[in-house]
From TrEMBL:
The keyword Transmembrane applies. This is Mitochondrial carrier. Residues 1-27, 266-328 are annotated as: Disordered. GO terms for cellular component: mitochondrial membrane. Keywords: Membrane, Mitochondrion, Repeat, Transmembrane, Transmembrane helix, Transport. Coiled coil: none annotated. Solcar repeats lie at residues 36-125, 142-228, 237-374. The keyword Isomerase does not apply. The lineage of its organism: Eukaryota, Fungi, Dikarya, Basidiomycota, Agaricomycotina. One of its GO terms (molecular function) is nucleotide transmembrane transporter activity. It is found in: Mitochondrion membrane.
Length: 374
């Protein structure tokens, strides 16, 4: 989500935000709390998300535009990162580097609220606690697996609920310059719904859900790298060692799972023709596509008067009804089809467009989060 999935802060064993402190030896173990939203965690995560979204928005815009390009690397029309920045500044100025900021900021607070609620509830439902008189049949005794499963479940839940905001964010960032720009998140949501229907808000949900496996790669690798460093020395790991473990694990996880981001962006960007318009039309938002005028075979509009007075002859070209513009048929219909189409049209490099810009955006955040948790 978005690219927007919370970090691994809550996925580290022994570093969960909802677990109480270790009891004094000999005292009664604390009773686990029930599912609830953690205000401190939500405010901290949401606040960090607000700051991060503002600072990293230009990189997010550049990355999304690179992902949305459908031409091969080296093609005359292909724009790299520098070319993308120049194009944005020429067309929209500095403000163009912050398109999509409002839906991004709106998405962080509910994302963290959902994430921590589900994460905490999953652990308390499936975890093993000291006060258990007998082990539940569905309990997860492996602490690492418990935290990873909780993080993936929480990430998937948040992605499903907040996906509409990330679709709107992607549309903001990739809107063609020939269209009137969206004025607000609410207006963008209305226009997308009116033209494409409700299903458009869940474009790219499948690849977004695949993104939750990112944590399954990053966290075990981070712990493995730390273990290798600890085996070499009996002293505590230095800040530099922790930084390198975090950076390498994040970079490897991003490289391994990055194609899902390109696939997600392609599916979110494309305009769809809904089955029933705005829910019930053909894409013009009012339930039917009305032709603006009758045109003859050479493209000139014919007036009603001329139509009624000039009889049609066999040699006269028939009138053609021109419907209002509507979204085109989708090029990308599934994860597998999108993957194969990108691979065939753009090569394997097409699946990694914007990777280096994405690493510039995500690795620093990951380093701060993981080092802080140690």
């Amino acid at each position: 989500m978005a690219s927007a999935t919370p970090s691994l802060l809550s996925a580290l064993p022994g570093r969960t935000t909802s677990m109480p402190k270790s009891p004094v030896p000999g005292s009664e173990p604390p009773i686990p709390r029930r599912w609830y939203i953690l205000p401190d965690s939500i405010l901290a995560g949401g606040g960090a998300g607000f700051v991060s979204s503002i600072l990293m928005c230009p990189l997010d815009v550049i990355k999304t535009k690179l992902q949305a390009q459908t031409v091969r690397h080296g093609h005359i029309d292909y724009l790299g990162a520098i070319g993308t920045v120049k194009q944005i500044l020429e067309r929209d100025g500095v403000r163009g580097l912050y398109r999509g900021l409002s839906p991004t900021m709106l998405g962080y607070l509910p994302t963290w609220a959902i994430y921590f609620t589900v994460y905490d509830g999953f652990k308390r439902t499936f975890g093993v606690t000291p006060r258990m008189h007998e082990k539940k049949g569905y309990a997860i005794s492996n602490l690492w697996f418990l935290h990873i499963a909780a993080a993936m479940t929480a990430g998937a839940t948040g992605t499903i609920i907040t996906n509409p905001l990330w679709v709107i964010k992607t549309r903001f960032m990739t809107q063609p310059h020939t269209e009137p720009p969206y004025r607000s998140t609410l207006q963008a949501a209305y226009l997308i719904y009116r033209a494409e229907g409700f299903r458009a808000f869940y474009s790219g949900l499948g690849p977004s859900l695949l993104g939750v496996f990112h944590v399954a790669v990053q966290f075990p690798l981070y712990e493995r790298l730390k273990a290798w460093q600890i085996e070499k020395t009996s002293e505590p790991l230095s800040a530099y060692q922790l930084l390198m473990c975090s950076a390498v694990s994040k970079a490897v996880a991003s490289f391994a799972t990055y194609p899902h981001e390109v696939i997600r962006t392609r599916m979110q960007v494309q305009r769809r023709t809904p089955r029933n318009g705005n829910g019930n039309g053909n894409g013009n938002g009012n339930g039917s596509a009305k032709p603006p005028a009758n045109v003859n075979g050479n493209g000139a509009a014919s007036s009603p008067a001329a139509s009624s007075t000039v009889p049609r002859t066999p040699n006269t070209a028939p009138r053609i009804q021109v419907p209002l513009p509507s979204p085109s048929e989708p090029q990308y219909t599934s994860i597998a089809q999108t993957f194969l189409k990108i691979l065939a049209d753009e090569g394997w490099r097409g699946l990694y467009k914007g990777l280096w810009v994405n690493l510039m955006r995500t690795v620093p955040n990951s380093i701060v989060t993981l080092v802080r948790c140690v």
